[in-house]
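Structure first, sequence second, as always.
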């Protein structure tokens, strides 16, 4: 169902839009957590470490795809907010072209440079082969993952966050089922986990495309709009490329942290892999709120409604603060039990299970204290992106990269693996404060520009209608 976010109470609209996103993201994280549990319990801790050690490479690719397609569909949402049906059609066509090119580049890059990347990540020799098998199969699913994100982005751009949820739930459940079959029945190891992802995403893309074609006429391409325009493509890439860089920089910083973590051996790798999955699950409400703000601000920016954006941000800030407090309380007191779910003590194969649980829980205790800053990042960064201003979010990502990498490398040398636990929290604080200051600057500048424009119109009207002496 198409929803116009330029009319109605901002708080109600944001919550209504964010809830399906939250449910969908929770299902996605449920898959990732269940995948790790299936691997850790049905195979062994070594297999769990192999996936955890190589996961940042996949995350770099995934974040590039997510950022690029998200940037493309910002333009679609702006055209829809401006009630420009022809503009929506042109946007859809150019988004598809850009996504196809990115798919080819990423697939070839991952296939040909995977082994050097794994060596760069300091993957221990005892889990290297499993990590390679897992990542190589995932690289073949590049196009399907990009297309799924793009199609979901189109639908969200029109204000419908429920339909992508249904497809995500279907994809998640299918993926879990396939993992049980490929790992538990066929005994294909970590390769079975990656193959399940490939098959599930392919099926989901086909079904999503068919449904979108039938139920959303505005997204159904007409021949007269299927011609390439350099200017239209530049309008899309102007937002998509910085967003892709932003997300890739974030993932690259996580890759640096993971490479440092990998130097401490399989036990520490497994501990961080489990705790990061739990953290990603706990922070999904903040992510869903940020995604809702991106579409909300994009539509209202296209409709030239700056005051609604400001109201929406105030409500989103309050909600993110409350969510951060709740996440802090929950994760802090149940994290240890959640980490224990990832491990079958009967298949420890000499690994120190108690150390894994202790280290993972210690990380969660530290990171939960900084969820407030992570909420600032999601709300303010996504709002600025929705307004079509990608440079500041990109700068904030660079700030995260520098602070996270420096903290991980320096503190790890200073106090050991415990230093890695402070890398992300420090980067959240630095980037969060930056985007808040940037948002205030943009809003004040745009408000002043609009006031000058309105005063100019009034003066012009008075001159044109003043009596002739």
């Amino acid at each position: 169902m198409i929803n116009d976010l330029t009319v109605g109470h901002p708080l109600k609209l944001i919550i209504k839009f964010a809830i399906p996103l939250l449910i969908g993201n929770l299902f996605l994280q449920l898959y990732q957590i269940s995948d790790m549990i299936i691997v850790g319990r049905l195979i062994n801790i070594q297999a769990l470490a192999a996936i955890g050690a190589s996961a940042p490479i996949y995350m770099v690719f995934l974040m590039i795809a997510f950022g690029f397609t998200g940037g493309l569909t910002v333009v679609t949402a702006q055209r829809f907010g401006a009630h420009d049906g022809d503009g929506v059609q042109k946007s859809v066509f150019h988004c598809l072209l850009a996504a196809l090119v990115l798919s080819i580049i990423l697939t070839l890059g991952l296939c040909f440079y995977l082994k050097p990347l794994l060596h760069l990540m300091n993957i221990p020799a005892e889990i290297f082969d499993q990590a390679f098998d897992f990542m190589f199969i995932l690289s073949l699913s590049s196009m399907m993952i990009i297309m799924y994100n793009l199609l979901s982005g189109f639908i969200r751009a029109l204000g419908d966050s429920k339909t992508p949820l249904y497809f995500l739930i279907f994809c998640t459940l299918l993926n879990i089922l396939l993992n049980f079959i490929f790992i538990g029945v066929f005994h294909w190891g970590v390769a079975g986990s990656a193959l399940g992802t490939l098959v599930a995403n392919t099926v989901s893309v086909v079904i999503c495309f068919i449904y979108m074609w039938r139920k959303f006429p505005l997204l159904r391409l007409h021949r007269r709009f299927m011609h390439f325009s350099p200017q239209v493509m530049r309008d899309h890439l102007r937002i998509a490329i910085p967003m892709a860089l932003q997300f890739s920089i974030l993932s690259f910083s996580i890759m640096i942290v993971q490479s440092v973590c990998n130097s401490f051996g399989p036990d520490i790798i497994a501990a961080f892999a489990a705790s990061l999955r739990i953290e990603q699950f706990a922070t999904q409400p903040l992510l869903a709120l940020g995604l809702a703000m991106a579409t909300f601000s994009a539509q209202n920016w296209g409709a030239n409604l700056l005051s609604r954006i400001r109201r929406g941000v105030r409500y989103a800030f309050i909600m993110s603060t409350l969510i951060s407090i709740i996440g802090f309380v929950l994760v802090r007191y149940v994290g240890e039990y959640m980490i224990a779910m990832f491990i079958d003590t009967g298949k420890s194969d000499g690994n120190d299970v108690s150390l894994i649980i202790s280290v993972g829980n210690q990380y969660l205790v530290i990171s939960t204290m900084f969820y407030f800053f992570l909420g600032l990042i999601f709300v303010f960064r996504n709002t600025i992106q929705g307004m079509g201003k990608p440079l500041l979010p990109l700068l904030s990502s660079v700030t995260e990269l520098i602070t996270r990498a420096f903290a991980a490398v320096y503190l790890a040398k200073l106090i050991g693996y415990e230093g890695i636990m402070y890398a992300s929290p420090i980067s959240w604080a630095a980037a969060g404060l930056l985007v808040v200051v940037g948002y205030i600057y943009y809003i004040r500048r745009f408000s002043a520009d609009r006031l000058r424009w309105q005063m100019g119109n009034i003066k012009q009207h008075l001159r044109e209608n003043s009596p002739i002496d």
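Margin note: The chain has one domain: 10-459.
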